[in-house]
Structures are given as structure tokens and as C-alpha cells.
Amino acid sequence: MQKIYYGAPGTGKSFAIKEYLENKGIEDEYIFRVTFHPEFTYNDFIGQLLPTVEKNGNDESTITYGFEKGVFTLALEKAYQDTSKEVYLVIEEMSRGNCASIFGDIFQLLDRENSGVEKGYSRYFINNPVIAKDIIALSGDRIKLPANLSILGTVNTSDQNVFVMDTAFKRRFEWEYISTKPVPTTKPYKNNVNIKLNNGTEMIGINWVDMYGVLNKYISSDQWLALGEDKQIGQFFIEFDDERNEEKINEKIKNKLLHYLWFDIQLACYKTDVKLFDETISNFSDLYDRFEADEKIFSDDFFTCIEAWKNNSL
């Protein structure tokens, strides 16, 4: 199986993988994890020759070079040790690395057989004697992915412009969308706290699940900011950990949510007639200070949306 879980930041993509593996009863020794980033390379993924300093009896040192295996090679070896055991390679933040460069010739192995005695194995092989040398089950230097090795990945829709995945790479994976809808589907919701906001007249209370729901509508709707779904956030964008202390809740709101909303949302919007924040706020420092002082920070339009949401009319 090769599957990518994708969606807005904070929707629980990593949690979905964790829950899937736990439900299948997969032990930690059969799970290999890695996170892609802009500096991650093929050598990090597959392995590379690294120097080792060894001292001899005469207080002299010699340098030898050995192959340091990457996470892909380690997972492949584990899968071939016992093909009756399921092994999972989990790749977080796939779009933050250059997948074409990181996978390199391994890309050829992602095509799997759909039927026959080799169902689930790579359809084509590659020659790589360095990877193959410690895998007894392989003959010569020909490598294929076994049927018991699965690759699971996560992709933030807001990060797809970091490194664009080409169509050839994408089609070799199943894709599962992780919705911004709250979990569970009925109350009580997870990770839900009460937030207080000044609407210009009084302090009002709104649950986090309602708050991020209104934000997503306001962010993506053509009627409002029209920034699209890739700018939305998920239920776990902020993790409150059942926090009930108002001061600590506000700390997380101002240091994480407001930063994102100002720099990634407000400044990215091309509309001039619609604002997320009060029009008198001209910089982030002012926004930060006003929130700390329990003053009004959001626009009248946004508070109108909150009321519409509460009346199920948004």
C-alpha cells in the first residue's frame, strides 16, 4: 500500500496514520519514520558513505568509510527479514522536500503488481548493489519493494507550493483527504475550549470548534477573503490539551493563531474591501497588544459571520 493523507494544517493527518497503525496492532519495530524538509536528500533517505575514525594500539588513528543506511534501506531490510510481517515507512511533510530528488531511482519501484504471485511487489526492479548486499532474500543486486512494505505519507495542502509533486509521482499513491470537520462527528468534540473575544461592545464567548469553523468559511468563501481551502486550518491547529486556564488559552491564541492569521491570511488577501481584522489595526504588534488588552481585534464583518454561524445560516 502507498497512501498519502492530505489536508489543511491541523486536521490530524499524522494522528490518522497513528490511529491506523495502532488499530492494526503494528509494533514500533516495524514502523520507520522520517520527515522531509528542503535540505533532505537521496543520500539521507537511502544511505551514504560516512567516515569513521578508528584508533589502533599505537595511539594512531585510521579513517575508514562505511555505508550508513538511511530510513528507506532500513525499512526495506526489515520487510525482507520476514515477509509475513507488515512493515510501514511513514513520511511526514512530503511536500516540504523535493520528492523527485529524494526518491531518485527508487521512484521506479513505486509501481506495484496488481495481481499474480507477485501481487504487491514492485513491477520493475532497479540495480543497487549497496542496498542489496545485506538483504539475503534478494538475488544479486536487483531490488524490488516487497508486498509487506507500505509507504504512508502526509501532505499539508498549504505547503504544496514548497516543492510541487509531479503527476507521475502523485498517481503512484492513493490519496485520502482529511477533512477540516471536527472530530468526533457529534458533541462533545475533542480539543475544544471556550475563547473570549471583544466584539466592540462586550466580551463574547465562542468555542474553539466554532471559531475555527467560522474562520475557514471566512478564509475560503468568495464572499469574504476568497483565499481557497488551502489556507484553512484544522481542529488541531492549536492543541489545547484539555486546557481550561483562560490565560494559557489566550497565550496559544495570540502566539500561534494570530500570527498565522496576520502573516498568512490577512497579508495574503488581495481584496481591499474585506478585512479579517479591525481596519484600525495596521501592524502585528498592534494586533498582539490589543488582544492582550481584551480589546476588539476582528472586523465587524467577521463578527457578523460568527452570529450567522451560531444561527446555522453561514
Question: Which SSEs are present, and which pair or pack?
Answer:
Blueprint: E1 2-7, H1 13-23, E2 31-35, H2 42-46, E3 47-55, E4 61-69, H3 71-81, E5 87-92, H4 99-103, E6 126-127, H5 129-132, E7 142-143, E8 149-156, H6 167-170, E9 174-177, E10 194-198, E11 203-207, H7 208-220, H8 246-265, H9 284-292, H10 300-310
Parallel strand pairs: 1-8, 1-9, 2-5, 5-8
Antiparallel strand pairs: 3-4, 6-7, 10-11
Question: Could you characterize what this model shows?
Answer:
With 314 residues, this protein is of the alpha/beta class. It is 30% helix and 19% strand. The protein has ten helices and eleven strands. The chain has helices at residues 13-23, 42-46, 71-81, 99-103, 129-132, 167-170, 208-220, 246-265, 284-292, 300-310, and strands at 2-7, 31-35, 47-55, 61-69, 87-92, 126-127, 142-143, 149-156, 174-177, 194-198, 203-207. The chain has a five-stranded parallel beta sheet, sandwiched between helices. The protein is elongated and about 75 Å long. The protein starts with a strand and ends with a helix. The model has no long low-confidence stretch (mean pLDDT 88).
